[in-house]
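The methods section describes the discrete structure representation at length, but only in general terms. What matters is that the chain and its backbone geometry are given together, residue for residue. For illustration, here is how one protein appears when written out as sequence plus structure tokens:
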Amino acid sequence: MDRKSYYENYQANLMLLNCEIEQVKIAAQKAIGEKAWFEATHRDPKQIATTDTKIKACTRLYTFLLCSWFEARLLKMLYENSSVAFTDQEIADIRSKEPNYNEMSKKWKESFSIAICRSYGFSYTPNTDYTSQFVNGSMEQKNYTTVCDFFSDITDAITIRNRLGHGQWDIQFNGNNTGVVNYPFFTKYDNIQKLSMLKQAFNEIAEIINSYVIYKDKHNPNFNAIIEKRINKVSQIKNRIHTSDYQKYAYKLGQLHGRKNANYKHNTFGN
């Protein structure tokens, strides 16, 4: 396939993934509302437990699709059409590293490093931190170091996708499958409300990295302002995740479920 075909195929994958993610979100919200209504109307605990399992299943599926979406979004970045985007040889070099990397996030970090070096005239060396190459205290340096910090998010997403992809949907194991591991990701993003916001954050991170690949004039103050604005948006989204109120979220969905139920007037959501 040529470059254009790769780009279009990854775009098609992203479009379908977005549709799948939205469908799973709808299913999760329906189950959350159902459980909230069951609890408010004091239904059989077994009925509530069954619905709780549905919620967990939808949440894990959403997580898998979200992490897969993030990977596909970054893959599309390799084939962007710009005079300063990756050359065919650079793409081949980046893709050839995949089998040798224990963590796919390293590939994306190196892709980012290549884009940085091409843009600012640095000499590229694998596994290198370029912070000291920038003017100390400059906006360029600040943005660069912040974006590098985002790669921990990429590492987490790829790790979780791999665990779920290996069939570990309820209980997860370590990389060697020799012991059970409690991944912090599942605690930090334990419901569909937080995951929906995380998708917004992932999209901003992908757009930031993509901007470093396709924008021609990285020294332009407007470019740095755009990057800083997106970085601030990621911070705002993560803060909303941290302060989100799931009980309130579930209650509203319970009200919606109650309105659709023939016995709505007889339950505690009726007021």
Q: What stands out?
A: The two ends are 61 Å apart (CA to CA).
